[in-house]
Amino acid sequence: MAGFILNKFTGIFPRVQESLLPEAAATLAEHCDFAYGELRNMKAGFYINSMSNQPSSIWTEDGLTFYSWPGDVDAVRSPIANDLHRRLYYTGSDGFRVTDRMGTRPTGGVPGTSYKVGVPRPTTPPTIPAGGGLLLKRINKDKHNIEYRFHYESGNVKHQEGAIAVTPTFDASGNLTNARFTAPKKKVTSATTNRPTNIAGNPVTYAANGWPIFEYLDNHGLPEPDRAFLNAYYHLSPSDTWFTYTGSYFAPCAKPELENSTNNESQVPADQATPDGAFEVLRIIAKDKVTGETYLDIYTSNSSFYAAVQFVELNLVKVENQNNMFDAQMTAGAEEKDIESRAYVYTYVNQYNEEGPPSDPLTLDATPTGIVDIAATLDAVDGYVPISEIRFYRTGSGTSIASYYYTDSIFLSGQTGPKVLSFRDTKNGAELNEELNALYNYPPAQDLRNLTLLPNGILMAMRENEVHFSEAYRPWAWSPANVKPLKSQVVGACAIGTGAIITTRTQPYLVEGISPDAMTVSQLNIEQAGVNKWSIINVAGRVIYASPDGLVTIIGVQAGLGDSQVFFTREVWRARFTNGDLKNLRFGMNDGRLLAYTHDNTTTPFVIRLDEAGGTMTELPGFLAQCTFTGLMADQLYYVVGSKIYAFHAGEDQQCRWKSREMVLTRPLNFAFAQAVASGNWNIKFYADDVLTHTETITQKVTDFRLPAGFMSDRWKIEVSGQGRFRELRVAEKAKELAGL
After folding, report:
1. Calpha distance 717→613 (Å, rounded)
2. What contacts 473, CB < 8 A, 6 or more positions away?
3. Do the strands 265-268 and 279-288 form a parallel or antiparallel pair, or are they unpaired?
4. Rounded Cα distance, 436 and 396, in Å
5. Beta strands of 292-426 (E only): which ranges?
6. Is the separation of the CB atoms in 553 and 543 below 8 Å?
7. Is the peptide bond before 184 cis (omega within 30 degrees of 0)?
8. Are 590 and 636 a contacting pair, CB within 8 Å?
9. Which of 42, 198, 211, 583 has its CB surrounded by the most CB atoms within 10 Å?
């Protein structure tokens, strides 16, 4: 039995001599798909739309609308989940910028609105405005309803407490400075606790000597002598004449000294009396006229109820030569131990709610409960996302740790700088709990390039030999401390695992870590330079980049040319890219395919599959592209030709072409019969000693056909071209031998 069967198809191996090719290998493979074990054609690109410019870079999320740039741009989606602002970050010739993903259009174009990434640091520290700094709590007649209350105090107990009338004094601004009042008489125990207050139906008061005083009217006259008392005074009104009874008649006398007429006491029963030694206390309560909230509640400093409030004291002073009259004076006062050193900083917050780094600090003295007025400068921040808020922070009370805590904000409502804005800090230390976490939220350098999103929410970008990292899930925050220098200039980068592979002009590096400050840099075990930034890509879980010697594959921390050496030697690789074409080589990725092409179309593009059809290579003659972009959400590779965008391998069937290796027989034969199993439209060409001997067109699933006589040869090749699915070809000398192959 003499014949052969073709039912296994693989791609080309440019490095292998034709006579040494594996059995199923090809000497020519164009637009072939080997993923299914049979020969299938690839598909052409699916035309999506024409862009409004000639793109060199594109970005899309859904494959329907695009951003397109005429220059080299790297764009990544914000790593923040459910990002309300739909941010897209990109680097290019106009710097490091951010825009809204919703601005994409079916016809592409550059973003209509974009900003520099980050929030700038304020250029000046906080200042103390005129009249600012540490402030007293001021009770103001125009702002506050003021209540005055008085009591006598003894042993931390209030006596005779109640409202009292005062004569207030206010300064030119309406602030209360003094409250003058006359204290009510102190209630003391009566000297004669059982003496009557009514005698013979008449009310009785007493003189200072303890004698009772009887009151009568002029028109009634004095009482009869038999109803008069010795050691008593009789007062006639309204003539205001005074008498005493001698035992036989009423004798005129001078007005006696009345009880309590010269001191601040009134006699009451013992259970109603104010203790001896009780002293005067005034309490002032001020409430906001608008909100009704208590603004200040303070006692005079002689009271046990007094507490130092906002660095203010209320001192009680007796008015000279005025019986029972006092001044309650509001003054500043604090002991040295109450003074603390306090530092203030402020930050800018933009309309994306991104917070920048703090200003330099302002240090001042204050009390733990003191009110402080400070001022902040809103700079002109041209080119950045507009500033919407200024946040103020200060150091805590009673601690030597210089941590800053949120105090309050000024909301700008469209205001722009340069402008100075004032802020009043009314919080005490116990109200501070939100610590400043934006100390190192510096904006990135505008000359960073090669923007890459790492799997752990960190953005990475490069310049010269430096690798820069953002804070995790804070793509606007790039601390100067999160920079890793490499030995030589960075060429390209590709995310993998918890980090990235970085190519340089000398060798590759692995950078990885769970946070930007914990990133480690490891030089990999190969000295192969990257040729450019566009020829490094992640395909099927491995990073592949182009080097001068071939394709370098990195899996984990192991790097090598093994995948490349299946197809290329150094000489074959370099011969494929003559005239410096390596610098123009670009990669694309789609469904396990590595697409390699040059943007100036000087080299025949090719595809190497690294997934289920791993180890197969086909060329793509006629494929043109200026740039590509892999949309992971749509799982599609997009490419640009002129101004038109296409979806790779998504259009109509292409004409594939596959040519077998040369099959060398033990003796010359003239094959007479063949059988093809296929669907679609196919042409089969038979070559004997490289001479075309027959061409057969196949349109049915199973086709038997004769081969012409007169071609004896021991070297045969088969070429198959067409569209559809080509499963098998059997060739034999006799028809009955076909089934036995």
Report:
1. 23
2. 79, 80, 457
3. unpaired
4. 12
5. 294-299, 312-318, 325-332, 340-350, 362-366, 371-378, 387-395, 404-411, 419-425
6. yes
7. no
8. yes
9. 42
- 221: which residues sit within 8 A by CB, 6+ positions away? 236
What residue has token string 């946040």?
Answer: 391
For the segment 287-306, what is each residue's pLDDT rounded down to a tens digit? 999 999 998 899 998 998 88
Instruction: Give the burial class of 110: count Cβ atoms within 10 A of its Cβ; 0-12 exposed, 13-18 middle, 19 or more buried.
Output: buried
Q: What does the mean pLDDT of the chain come to?
A: 89
Coil vs helix vs strand at 270: helix
**Is 627:45 a contact under the CB 8 Å cutoff?**
no
User: Cα(236)–Cα(201) distance, rounded to whole angstroms?
Assistant: 17
Gap between the Cα atoms of 422 and 404, Å rounded? 19
Task: Give 473-513 pLDDT, tens digit per residue.
Answer: 999 999 999 999 999 999 999 999 889 999 999 999 999 99
Question: Which is more confident, 162 or 259?
Answer: 162
pLDDT at 400 over 70: no
Between strands 627-631 and 636-641, the pairing is antiparallel
In sequence order, which residues have a C-beta less than 8 Å from that of residue 519 and are 6 or more positions away? 469, 482, 484, 499, 511, 512, 513
Does 310 score more than 90 pLDDT? no
| pLDDT band of 344, cuts 50, 70, 90 | very high
The model carries a pTM of 0.73
Write the DSSP assignment of 74-91 as a string of letters. Answer: EEEE--STT-TT-EEEEE
Phi, psi of 559 (to 5 degrees): -120, 145
DSSP for 594-617, please give it: EEEEETT--S--EEEE-STTTTEE
Q: What does the pLDDT look like over 609-652, one tens digit per residue?
A: 987 667 899 999 999 999 999 987 888 999 999 999 999 999 99
**Is beta strand 265-268 parallel, antiparallel or unpaired with respect to 186-189?**
parallel
Q: Whole-angstrom Cα distance, residue 451 to residue 412?
A: 32
For residue 570, report the phi and psi dihedrals to the nearest 5 degrees: -55, -45
- Give 238's strand partners: none
Give the residue from 396, 389, 414, 422 showing the smallest Cα distance to 128. Answer: 422
Token pair for 732: 């034999």
**Token match 């690839």: residue?**
42
CA nearest neighbour of 101 among 115, 111, 116, 91: 111
- Which stretch of 127-136, 384-393, 431-440 has the lowest confidence by average pLDDT? 127-136
Contact of 257 with 208, CB cutoff 8 Å: yes
| Mean pLDDT, residues 361-387 | 87
CB contact at 8 A, 200 and 227 = yes
Assign 262 a pLDDT band (cuts: 50, 70, 90): very low
Distance CA 498, CA 513 (A): 6
Strands 673-688 and 340-350: unpaired
Rounded to 5°, the CA angle 63-66-68 comes to 135
Report how far Cα 190 is from the mean position of its chain's Cα atoms. 76
Instruction: Enter the tokens of residue 22.
Output: 């594996």
Model confidence pLDDT, tens digit, residues 529-539: 999 999 999 99
CB-based contact 258:212 (threshold 8 Å) = no
Contact (CB, 8 A) for 695 and 674: no
Question: What φ, ψ does residue 200 adopt, rounded to 5°?
Answer: 50, 35
Per-residue pLDDT tens digits for 650-688: 999 999 999 999 988 888 988 999 999 999 999 999 999
